[in-house]
């Protein structure tokens, strides 16, 4: 089957030079990544681990035309089409893949991503190019983090939170996948519909290795693919006006540790960024495990940054709504933008890309005797590696070839990590429902 797509708005206004660059990129080593990401967005709703085996004959090409490009699909998933026409939302996601994987790769190939200021500016530029940096008079974007593998009752709870936020005119940003990333968007869409809000925003921020393994959910109406996990995390905290954390696994722990490491920086002491941990009453064990781990490793100051509000959807939404005034007042007092938090200080250790290979994972400093912000950065990297070993193609292959990643450090911290990770496993938070989890890590005590 061969399908030719005319580009939607934007892609039909490319210069010949830009078209040439896109074609060059689509024939480079980047093509494999581009192809896998394109296949993922074309196959929205299918959570199969065998996606690339099922569509081994799939190809995507960019064809030059005087007015821009055409997109050629060969043997694409039929689920992306209705009566022979591609679903509009899926085509929008497909063009986001072209924009962010190919266009940005050439645009930022000479950027010094070791320079903190350049990183922050590049992230802003990527978001602005994707038209997600929008003028606003009142902060209203709530970032929701949580696991892709959650229980049905937890999923329904995330939808209820989203619904309550939507009724209050708040918009949603998530990692754009299934589970706790889909629920708040779905709920908010209903809340917006009831309030006759026609420009509701459901912003999905992802990165190449995740989107290739985990397609964006169908509710996402603004999709941005950042270059790597570190840029994605920075994008989250710079666009956020509040952050809600639902139950999750290693990925959610990574996000939380990243956030705490930044907020513990004395330069961010005056920042106003509400953080709420919430879920149904049945999830209290999850929050207890997280709170205990945070306080035991990063101290009471870190624990005090967390507002734990289980089983209170309306109260959570009202709290977040009330906090928007404080966020606005703070941004106004320091002359910062409402759309992008420039004044948030993020140290280079949280910005530099971390390659979770066996050598780097084994050399992480996982000892309590170090500054709390540095410990948070190293713990974040450890959990990032576990996420890679669980779901990212390169990490999964590395574990299959060389065995589990080795995490080693002092006895107290290693016991804490082992206890937390085992709780995630027992609660079924490390894999998609229905699959058996084989640990991609091994804990060693130095």
List unreliable stretches of 5+ residues. none
Enumerate the strands of the largest sheet in spatial order, edge to edge or round the barrel. 9-8-7-6-10-11-12
Instruction: Kindly provide the radius of gyration, computed on alpha-carbon positions and rounded to a whole number of angstroms.
Output: 21 Å
| The first-level CATH class name of the largest domain | Alpha Beta
| Integer count of domains | 3
Q: What coarse outline follows from CA principal-axis ratios? A: globular
Mean pLDDT: 89
* Annotated CATH architecture of the largest domain: 3-Layer(aba) Sandwich
Here the CATH topology of the largest domain equals Rossmann fold
The amount of beta strand, in percent, is: 5-15%
What's the tally of helices? 17
Q: Quote the distance from N terminus to C terminus.
A: 57 Å
Structural class: alpha/beta
Helix-residue proportion: 40-55%
The tally of strands reads 14
Largest sheet: 7 strands, parallel
């Amino acid at each position: 089957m061969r399908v030719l797509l005319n580009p939607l708005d934007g892609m039909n206004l490319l210069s010949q030079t830009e078209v040439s660059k896109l074609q060059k990129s689509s024939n480079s080593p980047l093509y494999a990544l581009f192809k896998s990401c394109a296949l993922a967005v074309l196959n929205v709703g299918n959570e199969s681990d065998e996606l690339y085996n099922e569509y081994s004959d799939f190809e995507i090409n960019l064809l030059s035309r005087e007015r821009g490009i055409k997109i050629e699909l060969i043997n694409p998933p039929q689920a992306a089409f209705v009566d022979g026409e591609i679903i509009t939302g899926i085509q929008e996601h497909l063009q986001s893949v072209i924009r962010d994987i190919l266009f940005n790769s050439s645009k930022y190939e000479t950027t010094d991503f070791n320079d903190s200021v350049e990183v922050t500016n590049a992230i802003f530029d990527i978001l602005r190019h994707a038209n997600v940096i929008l003028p606003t008079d009142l902060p209203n974007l709530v970032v929701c983090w949580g696991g892709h593998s959650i229980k049905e009752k937890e999923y329904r709870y995330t939808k209820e939170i989203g619904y309550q936020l939507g009724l209050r005119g708040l918009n949603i940003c998530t990692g754009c996948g299934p589970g706790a990333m889909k629920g708040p968007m779905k709920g908010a869409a209903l809340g917006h519909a009831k309030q006759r809000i026609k420009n509701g925003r459901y912003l999905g921020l992802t990165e190449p290795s995740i989107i290739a393994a985990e397609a964006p959910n169908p509710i996402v109406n603004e999709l941005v693919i950042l270059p790597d996990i570190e840029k994605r995390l920075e994008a989250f905290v710079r666009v956020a006006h509040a952050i809600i954390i639902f139950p999750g696994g290693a990925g959610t722990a990574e996000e939380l540790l990243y956030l705490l490491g930044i907020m513990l920086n004395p330069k961010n002491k005056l920042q106003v960024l509400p953080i709420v941990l919430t879920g149904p009453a049945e999830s209290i064990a999850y929050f207890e495990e997280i709170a205990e781990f945070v306080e035991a490793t990063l101290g009471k100051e870190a624990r005090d940054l967390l507002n734990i509000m289980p089983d209170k959807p309306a109260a959570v939404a009202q709290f977040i709504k009330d906090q928007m005034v404080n966020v606005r007042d703070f941004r106004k007092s320091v002359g910062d933008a409402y759309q992008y938090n420039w004044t948030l200080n993020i140290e280079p250790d949280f910005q530099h890309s971390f390659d979770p290979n066996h050598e780097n994972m084994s050399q992480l400093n996982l000892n309590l005797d170090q500054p709390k912000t540095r410990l948070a950065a190293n713990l974040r990297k450890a959990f990032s590696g576990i996420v890679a070993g669980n779901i990212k193609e390169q990490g999964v292959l590395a574990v299959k070839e060389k065995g589990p990643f080795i995490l080693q450090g002092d006895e107290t911290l290693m016991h804490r990590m082992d206890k937390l990770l085992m709780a995630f496993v027992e609660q079924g938070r490390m894999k998609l429902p229905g699959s058996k989890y084989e640990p991609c890590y091994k804990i060693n005590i130095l």
